[in-house]
């Protein structure tokens, strides 16, 4: 593998722990799986985000209750992101 990340749910604590323990890692970047919602229906969706900073994580946590606020923010930050397991809550 060329690069490695951890994508905890709504947390970057594991990634920060690893970076603090091994500060010279050059092939590791911070990732996260953000749980967000469509506010009209409360339908949840998980979005994988990669290459973010601690400040971006804090802002995404603030915005995550509304996917229509979260996605424009991630785009404005030029973050790489994708929808994870899109049909997980369809019954």
CATH topology: the name is: TIM Barrel
Task: Count the domains.
Answer: 1
Shape: elongated
Name of the CATH architecture: Alpha-Beta Barrel
The level of helicity is 25-40%
How would you sum up this structure in a few lines?
The protein is of the alpha+beta class and 91 residues long. The chain has a single domain (4-84), classed as TIM Barrel, CATH 3.20.20.
Write the SSE topology:
Blueprint: E1 4-9, H1 13-21, E2 28-38, E3 43-50, H2 54-63, H3 67-76, E4 80-84
Could you characterize the architecture of this molecule?
The structure is a single chain. The chain is an alpha+beta fold. The protein has a single domain (4-84), classed as TIM Barrel (Alpha-Beta Barrel), CATH 3.20.20.140. The chain is built from 3 helices and 4 strands, in the order E-H-E-E-H-H-E. It has helices at 13-21, 54-63, 67-76; strands at residues 4-9, 28-38, 43-50, 80-84. Strands 1-2-3-4 form a 4-stranded mixed beta sheet. The longest helix has 10 residues, at 54-63. It is elongated. The mean pLDDT is 91.
Could you name the key traits of this structure?
91 residues; alpha+beta; TIM Barrel; four-stranded mixed β-sheet; 32% helix; 33% strand
């Amino acid at each position: 593998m060329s690069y490695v990340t951890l994508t905890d749910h709504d947390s970057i604590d594991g990634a920060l722990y690893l970076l603090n323990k091994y500060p010279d890692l050059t092939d590791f970047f911070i990732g996260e799986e953000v749980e967000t919602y469509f506010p009209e229906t409360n339908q949840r969706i998980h979005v994988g985000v990669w290459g973010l900073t601690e400040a971006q994580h804090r802002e995404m946590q603030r915005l995550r209750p509304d996917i229509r606020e979260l996605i424009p923010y991630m785009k404005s930050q030029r973050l790489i992101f994708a929808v994870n397991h899109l049909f997980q809550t369809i019954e």
